[in-house]
Amino acid sequence: MILMTKWFRLALLPMLLLAHGCSDKEQQATVAPSPVAEAPVAVVDVALAEEPSVATDEPAAVSTEMHYAPFTQLPATTQWVTLRRGQTVSSLLSKQGFSGLEIARLASALEDVIALNKLQAGSVLAVNTQDGQRQVSLAGEYAERIDAVWTDAQWQVTTAVVPTRIEVSEHAVVIDHSLYGDAANAGVPGDVINGALLALSHFIDFQRQVYEGNRFEVAFERTLVIEDEPLFAHMQTPLQATYLRFVNSEDDYRLYRYQDAFYLEDGRLAESFLLKTPLNGARLSSHYGQRKHPLLGYTRMHKGIDFSAPEGTPIMAAGSGTVKRANAYGSYGNAVVLQHDNGYETLYAHLRGFADGIEAGTTVKQGDIIGFLGNTGLSQARHLHYEVYKDGKSINPLQLKKLSTDRLDGALLADFEAHVLGLEERTLRLASFASGDSSTYPPERLPSIGR
To answer: Within 13 Å, how many C-alpha atoms sit on residue 332's CB side?
Structure first.
């Protein structure tokens, strides 16, 4: 997603002549980023041209008030131009016939909407300079178009919501090696898989309850613009899972998205108080209970469970709460302790480092990234040591079964039941899919299941 920010400020506007790109350090987390190296992204700055001399008591003519306007199609004379690697926005617009004054004032007019100096290489702008017009359009959030029109020596800036359509995809996967790997091989996007793992981890211990032959079904929606596609071509389209099903030898979980949360068929909120596994793609390497310590050499109580995963794997908050501590903690190494409701605490130890903003007093939500797996403290190998306490007493995290008590009722429950009924044809079709089967279609073109 393009970087939307209000950071850009034009101090000393007439004196800025040169572009200056952001350093790599400004693009990284301050402590312990994920070990997966992302492809380098060229970030370019806008070179602001010098304005002609003006009287010192005359303010710069810019319009910073933001307005929303109905969507209208861009003029037929609009040209699409792409920001190349190493190119500045100033040079790009200069080639399209914009003056230094116009470019400088455009950056100022947009400063509270989008920072031109943060545009990534590959970003597309729509420009129109025909018949005396001066218009620049660019993408804000996905499906949001920002228009700047030069009128009376200043830029008038408006935002319009671009028309979209919804594309529905359905996939069925019978697990052979791992849920993530098999789903990815079947064409399910990574963001959808991660969201499904997070939702299902309220009920499923992915270390002990997932076996070959288990079945996973997912339906998700993708939002796609139907106008001004070039503006948004470099952006990731929003994805949202609407239905999840996981079947093993013991259970058949069906989760329905309703009002930004997942619910079970009976209207119960599909969440547990604490996640069973606070990280993805990990292997349970040590259980709760008495064991011989691998470094100390004698038997003592192991008050938590250990997960083995690649160093730098993101660690999630098992539940919503407040950070009690996030620092070096004796033999635990770098550790985070979270305080939850009803006397519960969770501890995450041997971290390589902490996520941005994680410190004592910070409020976190369930699933937020709080740190990264490491090998600090009294630790033999990279792993996460995870403990759960109730009123100061340690308990086995794998035996904690405290489901949310939230449940829909009244008009909301009736509306949810109608929503579930409306998805019945889709869920029946998914249940009939063989492993690896999928379908993609607009929702108004629902394929028949052969009734």
So the answer is: 19
